[in-house]
Amino acid sequence: MKPFVSELMKRATKPSNQSLNEKDPMKKLFPILTILLALFAGPLIGQDAEQPTDAPNTANTEESAKTTDEEAPADSESTDPTETEAEEGESEEAPAAIDSGDTAWMIVATALVLMMTIPGLSLFYGGLARRKNVLSVLVQCFACTALMTLLWTIYGYSVASSGDGQFFGDFAKVCLKGVGVDTVSGTIPESVYFTFQMTFAIITPALIVGAFAERMKFSAVLIFLTLWFTFSYLPVWHMVWGGGYLAEKWHAIDFAGGTVVHINAGIAGLVACIVLGKREGYPKSPMPPHNVPFVLIGAALLWVGWFGFNAGSELAADGVAGMAQLVTQVATATAAFVWMMTEWILRGKPTAVGIATGAVAGLVAITPASGTVGPMGAIAIGAAAALVCYWTATSLKHKLGYDDSFDVFGVHGVGGIVGALLTGLFFVKADTGAEYIENNLKGQIVSVIVTIIWSGVVSYIALKIADVFCGGIRSNEDEETQGLDVADHGEEGYQL
Question: What's the pLDDT score for residue 236?
Answer without folding.
Answer: 98
